[in-house]
Every structure is written in C-alpha cells, then in structure tokens.
Amino acid sequence: MSSPQNLGAGWSQWRLRLAARLQRQAQPIFLTAEGLRPLLDGANSPQRTVQEWAEAHRGTAARLIVSARLLHELVCEPGLPLAQEADLQAYGRQQFSHYFGAAAKQWPLASWRLDALPTHGAEQSAEQCGLSALHGLDWPALRLVFEANAVQLRQVQPAWAPVLAHVLASEPVWAAVPQAGLAWVEGQVLTWLQLRAGRVQALRQLRLSEASLAALHETLAELRNGFAGPVLALGFGLSAEPGQTDAGASEGVRLLGRLTGTAPQAEWFAPPRQANTSAPAPDFLGPRQVYSRLAWGLAATAAVVLVTAAVGLQQSQQARADAQAQQRRLATEYSRLRGSNVAPVAKPGARGAEQAQPLRAAAEVQKLLQLDWEPLLANVEQAGLSGGATANASAPAALSWLALDINATRADLRLEGLAADKLLPLQVADRLNAAPGWREVMLSRFQTAEQGMSGQRFELSAKLQPASLQRELPALPTPAAVAEGKTP
Fold it and tell me: Which single residue of 85, 103, 343, 425 has CA 20 to 30 Å from 407?
C-alpha cells in the first residue's frame, strides 16, 4: 500500500498538472542556449536557467519561442513525394545529416506545410513544405525538467513562425503585394523570408559580418538585388554607430521598431486573433492531433455512464439513510407500546445483501473514476484506424465501433463493432494483444450484420492492466520489415 507521504505527493502533482491544463493563456518564454527569458516581464527580465524557471513556475502552462541561434532551416523543393509526415521527416534528417554530420540525425524536427494554391490558367502551384531543426540543446532532458515541475508545454516554435504570423496580421497591405521580404534579426543571425502574395517561398539563415545596423543594411541590399518587393525588418541585438539611429535603413526597407534593443518584445510573438492558413506553423511538439468523432463519442458515453452511476449511488445512500431512520422510529414506537426497551430486530440475510449492493456499486464507480481513460480510448481508436488502413486505404470507415462496456473491478472490457470484412477484427485483436496493458484479447462473437447494416458484426473481450496502458500503440511493421520477416 502507498504511504501517506506518497499519496500526498501524488495528489499535489496531480493538482499542479490540472492547474496548468486549466490555465487559459500560456506564458510566452524565449528559449536560448543560455536559458529562458520571460517575455511578459519586459526587456529587463533576467535570463534564467531552465531548471530555475521551471521550479519557480510549477503548475503553469508555457509557450516556448526558440531563438534562431538554435535552429537550422530547410525549405523543400516543390513537387517532391513528401505527402506523408514520415517521408518529410526522413528527407529532412537525410539533408541535415548531409550538411551537418551524423549528430544531426538526432536533432528534433518541426515540420510545416502550406497547401497548394488554386491554379490560374497555365500557372501551376504545388504544396510548400519545410523543416526546422533544433540543435545545441539536450531536448529530451529539457522536457523532463518541465515534466518534473508540472509545467505544461503547449507550443515550441521557431521564433520566425509567430513573428511572421504577427506581421501578416498587422501589415495587410505588405502581405498582399506580389513579392515581399521579412528580415528577423537576432544579433548577427539573420533569418530571411521571401514571400509571394503572403506565402513563404524562401527561408534562409545568414550570418552578418558583425552585429551592427550597417552590416544588416549591407546584407539586405545584397538580398534585394533583383528583388523589387517591400522589406520589413524587426528584431534586436544590433549596435549603431554614434549618432546613427534605427531609422537609417536602406531604400525599400522599413524597420518595425528598434533593432538596437537587448531583448525581444512580447508583442512580436502574440498569436493573431484569427489563424492565418498561409502562415507556416512548425511545432517541435509535433502536429496537433485531431481526435475523430468516435473518440469524442466514446468519451461522452463514458462521462454519461459515470454521471449516471454517481447519481444512482447518491440515491442509494439516501434511500439507505431513510430506511435506517424509519427502522429507528419503528423500534422506538414498538418499545413505547410494549412499555419496555426492545432490541432492534436482526436483519435478514436478504436485507444484508440488499444493503451491500449500493456499496458494490460505489466501489465500481470509484474504480471507474480512477481509471485513466485517455490511453484506453486512444488505443481503441488507433487499433480501429490501423485495421481499416491495412485492409483498404481508399475505403473510409472500414471498421466502426458500436459499443464499449467495462467492468473496472474485474478489469474486463467488451468492445462491439462493425467491420467491412472478417480480417479486420482479427487484425485489431492482434494489434491490441501486442500493446502494453492488454491481455487475452479475443473474438467472443462474430456474425453477419442484421438488416440495415452491411458488413460483419463482432465482439471483442479483453483483460486490462490499466497501470500499464500507454498513450501510443506499438508501431506497425513497415512493408519492407514484413517482407523480411522482421517486426519493429
């Protein structure tokens, strides 16, 4: 059994995580190789190590803005066969390792995509995609520090991405021109973005000869050779000659604020009120996962079951209290009529079983409330999706879930579904059998669907080990591994 100290620590950690999840706005933090700089505290906010900041802000939500000094950028050539995220990531690792060595294969990558524009006449448009690579930091150790201090990371983006989204929203005239440029400056590091009708066409990182305004204007003049569009520049960390001001920009370049500041400003990274689909949104936490309607339906069903059980438990407890009060009143009245104290009548065995029923229901409800539903529902959804994809990738809804029934006390689970063919339920059972926390997954019923439904109706039964469930199922073997007889 857990000690009171362990229970208290677990409750405290859970309370901090809940507070971070319920926090409405995540605090923007600028991440550099030296540590973190809170952006909401202004330019005078001290830079702190990740450990110090995390310990001082336990139970909060954060949004990390990654400095350009920690990034390498890659824009893919249009037309490459990179429609799948795995293909894009593999291509990026190959390119980065070619230029920066074998260590680049371990760098975290943040990908971005822009859909192809509608065609106009003979002009063709292809999907635009690219990647940002994070180097110079131990990313897994960094995430462990945040995890240990119950700090929820909601977004980890390259600095140029929120800057571009902010400028597109605040400078609509500049964003609408056929050609435009944006220069994001962090001292000697210049990130140059070339846009066409508000969409990124080129993304480069350059190093200025020195961290000065003169060096910036000289580099921008070279970049604008043969480039007729307007250019906006913003950033920090540059020095100026005596008597020189930020306004001394070259022709065609407009500065958004001072470039001679010592720290970035929070408003540069503020999310726009309306999302811009033409602005790339790379995130080192990975693409946002969109849950299917099935997952939300199962979650809603589970919530209804829990609420119903809780209401039933409350009603049972109230009925028991009323029955006990009535029994005491009858015993008192009987004693008064007989003129003597009469001991309460012993309860029959059936009455004892009747009173034990609410207790068993309460125990079942408590176990249901303690069950971690997120990995369970995610496993069921992923197994169904993988089964459908294996069967026929062009046929949507090859497998549909109809019901989920769980006995938390016995850790028994029953799933009922409808499949397009007989192979899919077997694949789902095999996939779940191989997952942590699932045991004895087997088909308990299989029959042709009744009138009005097409396919095969089946029922799966399984034993669960809730503590061992994981959020992601083991990866499916690749076709090459299957051909060689290997598993991942």
Answer: 425
**Cβ atoms within 10 Å of 458's Cβ, excluding its own:** 24
Residues 268 and 234 sit within 8 Å (Cβ to Cβ):
yes
Edge-to-edge, what's the strand order for the sheet holding 61-66? Answer: 36-38, 27-31, 61-66, 152-158
Report the pLDDT value the prediction gives residue 296, as an integer from 0 to 100: 56
Q: What is the pLDDT of residue 394?
A: 44
Q: What is the CATH T-level fold of the domain 373-483, as seen in this structure?
A: Gyrase A; domain 2 (3.30.1360)
Asked whether the beta carbons of 189 and 238 are under 8 A apart, the reply is: no
Q: Which residues pair with 239 in a beta bridge?
A: 212
Percent of the chain with pLDDT over 70: 81
> What are the distances in angstroms from CA 378 to CA 299, 372, 399, 465, 469?
10, 11, 15, 15, 10
Q: What is the pTM of this model?
A: 0.57
pLDDT value for 482: 46
- Return the number of other C-beta atoms located less than 10 Å from residue 439's C-beta: 13
- What is the rounded distance in angstroms from the CA atom of residue 447 to the CA atom of residue 352? 42
Expressed in angstroms, the distance from the first to the final Cα of the chain is 37
Instruction: Return the pLDDT at 480.
Output: 54
Those residues of the chain that have pLDDT short of 70 are 1-10, 42-45, 117-125, 241-250, 288-297, 299, 339-356, 386-397, 476-488
pLDDT for the residue 422: 81
DSSP state letter for 342: -
Instruction: Give the β-pairing of 152-158 and 128-134.
Output: unpaired
Residues 432/441, Cβ–Cβ less than 8 Å: yes
CB 386 within 8 A of CB 439: no
CA dist., res. 168 & res. 271, Å (int): 11
Q: What is the DSSP string of 92-137?
A: HHHHHHHHH-GGGGGS-EEEEEEPPPPPBTTB----EEEEEEE-SS
Strands 179-186 and 438-448: unpaired
SS3 255: strand
CATH class of 160-263: alpha beta
Residue 191 is predicted with a pLDDT of 94
